[in-house]
């Protein structure tokens, strides 16, 4: 669940769950400034994943930290950061009649092995001497 410190204004409908990952080695600040009556700003450390709720029309500004300042390095529409939320039925384990949607594929594949000597002697390639 998203951590909501600054809830959206009541007039904002159509909120979506978003995720941004800082794939850089620098500290970044994610800021949404195009929504009136709402303040959203979070520090995102290198490799950190930020999950948040935002209006569909929101736009995330990414400010990358430099020595004593920050540079606006990207603007991303929130609908491009939207996560697909699983439906309630995907995690329903009470019904045995329904298909298991989570475990539909085998995670471990069978390893093909054959009995016998699988090692080959190392071949040494000689260099032709130049006389």
From TrEMBL:
Highest taxon in the source lineage: Bacteria
One Pfam family hit: DUF1830
Protein's name according to its UniProt entry: DUF1830 domain-containing protein
Record organism: Nostoc favosum CHAB5714
């Amino acid at each position: 669940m998203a951590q909501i410190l600054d809830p959206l204004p009541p007039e904002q409908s159509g909120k979506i769950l978003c995720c941004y990952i800082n794939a850089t080695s620098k500290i970044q600040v994610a800021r949404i400034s195009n929504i009136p009556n709402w303040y959203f700003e979070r520090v995102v450390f290198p490799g950190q994943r930020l999950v948040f709720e935002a209006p569909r029309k929101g736009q995330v500004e990414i400010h990358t930290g430099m020595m004593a300042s920050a540079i606006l390095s990207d603007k991303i529409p929130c609908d491009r950061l939207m996560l697909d939320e699983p439906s309630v039925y995907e995690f329903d384990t009470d019904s045995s009649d329904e298909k298991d949607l989570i475990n539909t594929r085998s995670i471990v594949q069978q390893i093909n092995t054959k009995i016998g000597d699988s090692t080959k002697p190392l071949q040494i390639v000689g260099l032709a001497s130049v006389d």
